[in-house]
Amino acid sequence: MNCASCGSVHREGRRFCGKCGAPLAKVCAACNAVNDNDESFCGQCGAAARLAIARGRHLEVAALLRDAVDLFESMKMPFWVAVTRLEHAEGLITQGRSADADDLLALASATFAELHAVPWHRRATQAAHDGPAAKEAATALPA
Question: What is the pTM of this model?
Fold first, then answer.
C-alpha cells in the first residue's frame, strides 16, 4: 500500500503512514472496515454518508442520509432509521444548523423512547439540549 501524500510503501493493514503520518485508508464509522481513500462507499457495509461526512463532502451527506432512511424504512428497521436521523441531526448541529436538526432529533428521540433504547435516547436528548453549543457529533456507539 502506498501513501497518497508522500508515496512511501507500507504493508497491508496499516492505517497511517509511518513517514508522514497521513491516513492510508478511511475507516468506516458504521462497521470499522478499512476502505481506500478514493472509495465513496464502504466496501463492507455500503455506508456512503459516513464516508462523505468523514471526507467533508457536506453537499452529498443530506441526500445520502435521506436514501438511508428510505432504505431502512422499507426494510422495517426503525432503530436504524432513528440512528440515521440522529447522526444527520448531529451533523447539522456541528454546522451551526440546529434549527434544521430539531425535527430529526424529535423523530429519533421518539423512536428510541418507544424502543426503550435508553443510551440512544439519552444521546438524542443531549444533542437537542446542546444545540449550537455542540462542537462535534458523537459517532461512536454509546457506552
Answer: 0.57
